[in-house]
Amino acid sequence: MHMLPSLNSSDDTSSPTALIGLNTRNVLMNRYPPGNSESTRQLLLRMRVCEERNTRLNFENHALKDDKHKLEKKLTDLDDKLLELQKEHAVQIEALKKELRETIREQERSKFDTLIKVLLPDTEQKKPKVYESPYKLPPEPEHLPKIDEATETDDVTSEAAKDFDAQEHPRRLADPLEVAECVQLREEKLKLENALFTLETKQKLMQFKIDKYMLLETKKKTLENRLLSLNDINTELINENECLKQQIAEAKRPAKPDQTVEDSSEASANKVCLEGSQSEKASELMASSRRVKELEARLSSESSRYELLEKQFNELRNKHDLLMQQSGHLSQQNGESTTGVLMKKIDELKARLAKYVGLCIRNE
């Protein structure tokens, strides 16, 4: 057994028990003789320090895990946003392609119309004119058919056919007035086709904008729901923070003299635990408040976009009314075949507009 050194030894100069601060080798090698109160005190202190360090490292580990989960959630949200942006860009590219095709088609039609207008006057000028002579020729003698048995049927039938053609179907020459009327009708037909094509394109654009408006409405509702849930989480975190503050205040009260070393170590561990949980909850509260601010800013931007879309929809509705009046005027001038098609398209547009206005009223 190790013996306690005396107070008058060469190494015993500063410590009453001659164990701490004298023999540095024993201190560095953590060798303490048994039965010494200071050695047990040092061991208890080291044990408490190790426990506190262990709890601190555990809290740091939990915080890192929470940060990892948050980053994974952010990555998933960013992936979803990227997919939505890709879909929106694809829809915009398709719409631009359609507009480009329509412009090319209109240009080709305009070129074709100009070519027809250039070529038709030349054809009218080059048409042969029929002149009637002012002098009347004497009538030719009528050709009498032969009554032979061999030629009776052929001559009689051929002459009868010639007389029938001359009486019932006289030869008609091309009238320039009729040609001009045909050209005018053709131009009116082309105008009606162009008007119908423009109405169809306007209808498609309106349908696309209506779909986009509905998508924005759904996004707005989801953002409002998320905002409400985040507000609830914020209130819960505030309540938990207040509870933790109360617990920390209770832990900071001076300990009673009857408490042992173990009770004081447990109190310090609880204090460290509560401080770590308080910091964690405070960080969560800050993150949720930032998220709420971001959602509020996004909601304001979405509401401004909604107002712009509503203005565009009103402008398109006015344009549609004007086009409907123009199409009705053209259909009254040029026939019932095109009026039926245009009226069907206009009825469909009216029904869709009524549905859209009903949705707008419900949302308001």
Automatic annotation (TrEMBL):
Residues 54-110, 182-247, 292-326 form a coiled coil. Keywords: Coiled coil. Residues 251-273 are annotated as: Disordered. This is Uncharacterized protein. It comes from Gnathostoma spinigerum.
